Structures
1.
Amino acid sequence: MEFFDEKELTLLTSTPAKCNTLAAYWDEYPVNIWSAKRINPDEKTSDECDDDMAIEIGEKARLSLLQVGPERAGCSLKVKYKKMSNHSLFLKLAYIKTPLQNGVGRYVGQLQRVVLKFCKNNGSSRGMREFIESGLVNFAKDNPGVVVYLKPRRHRTAIIKAEYLNGETQWINCRNFTQEEIAKWLNLLKSQSRNTTNTRFLKLIHTDHPSIQGPWTPYTFRDPKLNLVDFPNEELSNPPSYETTTHEQLVELFKKQKLEELDDKRAE
Amino acid sequence: MVFTTAINFVRSKGPDEFWRKRKIFKIAAAFRGRSRNCYSLAIRSVHRALVYATKGRKLKKIDMANLWETRLQAACEQHNIGYDIFRESLSRLNVMLNRKAIVDLACWEPYTFKALTDVARKKSLR
């Protein structure tokens, strides 16, 4: 199914030079294309659900992009995210993204240089020293685009300081780390494109319909006969009886007998 | 004549007072009464609020865990299976669903949860 007509394509492509590709456009204006609406809310057919949702996603994406497109032309907008609650006052909210569609064509590692500061003598730098002896050379070989500096500093804790291509720096205190931990943190820094410690990442997942089977109600597992009952009802007001009927008792006795026979056979 | 010493007699804390205080007022924007407008009151309220926020992060986790426990107990009771039996059977079947996931199913996908209880019951009877 085609998501965009020629008209829409021209609309989308007639954006300022900043957004030359669709991906760049979506990067500038992250659109929630995952919210799906049922076409007919009355018909709950689970088999057809997926196809309908797929079509709706496409429609919604088209419509929302069309809405954003013409407004965008000629003005510079920054999408602001309203914070809902107090708990991340000091973290800025952002969707996860890459600079200049890194990875779509070519991937360029965003880590520029890494400085490993450690003490030559103190025990808290032991892991760092071990890492330098064993895993550092391999790390440097595997990442020719990252410059590694070693700074032995007496009476100071072990630190990894990373600098990214966008100029941001990040430092991690490696006091009493093992060499594996240091390797893992270095891997994380290598895969990041910026310092993310001050951001809270928003999720692109959203749904207007969190329930497919229908959410639980007190009547979900109740007998539908209750719909026709006049309350107060004497029968139902009595406590439930857990006495087994004679039929059930006989069945139980029979099963017991069978088990006993089996046990006797096994004993022999 | 250039008077270079006179300027030293001006006692100013610095040029950034407005922005220092603005950081506090931003957090205190929704507070009641003078705490949102007067700095010395606001800073007290803001400090307390931030302390409550740090404490609350731990409490939230405890509260959610208790909520999931209660809900799971109730859901198991509705389907006539014991909570302990249910969890034990699921773990023996290697169904590694934590309480949060199971409770989400019980609330939003009740028939799936019923199926889980049936499976657990069968396992427990064997």
2.
Amino acid sequence: MSELTYLEAGRLALAEEMRRDPLVWVVGEDLGRGGVFGQYRGLAAEFGPDRISDAPISEAAILGAAVGAAMMGTRPVVEMRFSDFALCAMDELVNQAAKARFMFGGQTRVPLVVREPIGMWRSSAAQHSQSLEAWYAHVPGLVVACPATPACNKGLLKAAIRCDDPVVYMEHKGLWPMEGEVPDDPDFTVPFGEARLVAEGGEATIVAWSAAVHVAADAAQTLAADGIWVDLIDLRTLWPWDESTVRRSVRKTGRLLVAHEAVTVAGFGAEIVATIAEAEAASLRAPPRRLGSPRAPVAYAPTAEAALHVTAEMIAGAVREMVQGAPR
Amino acid sequence: MNAMLPVNLDRDRLRAHHRLMWRIRALEEVALRGLDEKLVLGAIHPSIGQEAVAVGVVAHLAREDLLLSTHRGHGHTLAKGASSGAMLRELLGRDGGTCGGKGGSMHIADFGVGMLGANGVVAANIVIAAGAAHAVKLRGENRVVACFFGDGAINRGPFLEGLNWAAVFGLPVLFVCEDNRYAATTRTDTMTAGPGASARARSLGVPAEEVDGNDVLAVDEVAARLVGEIRAGGGPRLLHAHTWRVTGHTGADPGAYRSEDETRRGAALCPIRRARETLAIAGLILAELDGDEAEARREMEAAYAEAQAAPFPPFAAAFSDVQDIGAPQHAAAA
Ligand SMILES: Cc1ncc(C[n+]2csc(CCOP(=O)(O)OP(=O)(O)O)c2C)c(N)n1
Ligand SMILES: [Mg+2]
């Protein structure tokens, strides 16, 4: 084990995979100088400019070229800088990367990873703060990963690079400096579709991913101090999502709360709540709930940005209501 | 008619072009009949009248070279070496089609012959072609990528992004703009600023040539030069081929937005007829040239009949080749 930040863990994962497989290469803007957040620092020196490739500010070409290069047997890792900019490459991701294998009848594969940093962070405002993971979960052909911890960022990024399907890989910008224990084993990977149990308890199930996991963990502590013990599940990947772990937990607790940073309306929490409502109606002791952002763009001013945050107090409050019955 | 023979005419080469152009024409005429007979299910975009561009360019691609195409891609695909039988099965949505019946005309592809796909999204193939060439360069291979697109595609962003990319990275791509003056029902010159594809390419430092795209020998000659320069490591080139789409935009479009005069003049440019006239002047017997047509029609009729006899893919095909991780689960698919 080593103590690494979330950012360093991602960088280590990439370096290890590039050493392991000469077909892995990275392409994106400003990578030669380490990338905008420093996730690529030092890699150009080790792997050279062909494998840590700078790119023009051409998101459609970055992703489209990655599709062509992936179909030709290389394994591109694409850096989109901010997930918001990936929207300039939606055709390339949704119509091309996600469809090529299927529509060409299995003649080709598109083994690419698109790194799309998400989330509210330092007054980044409306065009640099979004969490649109639910969009991608909606698209057949894509895998969607949202790591919450340094260890997960190492193991999941490695799994994504080794995966033959296109993977949308969403790191949270607010988590870059977070420290944690990370396995040293170069073959440590996190399997897709396997959630992580962060806390255990019998009163309620909280499901979260990405930075919201840590907010929910704070809430779980507060609740525990009041004698309310919850299962906290870090989903880690949204497609595939670990339905069986969530169902098993809900069968035990009878209560489900999904908390995410993304807009609540048509967020992935809706999918989870609907699935549980359909499949576990008999286990439910309270209506399942979602907590997410109001349907508003992210503001610059910290006061207005904060209006969108799902807080530990909100999560704890919601669980208390579910456990004790809504206050009159 | 011009009775002058091109100097250094390679009769056998032109004859081969004549045959291949007939195979493309016959395949598409059969496909149009398939549309009438409700056997070709989705939209098709015939390249009738434009065959010389496909034939003249693809003549310079080896089997290991690569090709990306558009919604109007039957000619490119057949020229690259796909089987007419598999193509017609694909158009009829049948098992044994190039894509197992899952793609149809607009996603026809045959990776076995380096045909990396037609595309239903205008201009989308341009950046993918740049990426295929990027992989060729990364792996130190000596392959050329040809990327066909229409005159309408040059107004989409991927045209700029893809050409810039190929130029910046010095990639082995031949961009081929098939300029048939229309994008669906719209005259492209009414919607395009400046003089068009070749001028835009040159502005990015990509050398470009214009050619009469209905003269197969002219296309052959200029493609030879451009592909040679690319193979020598010269980076991307663009070929701007002026041509004419004889049919409407799709098989169902009568093309009534074009004037009678324009339609008549366009039809007179038929590249097959021009090749035939040159071959006749060069001493070939007309009956032999008629034989090229007859043979092509026989091939396509047989392929069409076989395609009709082929089964549709099984229900489970709806769920195969989507993804390995988180693949769709469907009880009835098993
Ligand atoms: C991005 C996109 N916009 C619109 C269309 C609909 N569409 C299909 S073909 C076509 C015309 C394309 O014209 P051009 O590029 O000149 O090719 P041509 O059909 O003339 O061969 C249009 C508008 C599409 N397929 N993709
Ligand atoms: Mg056109």
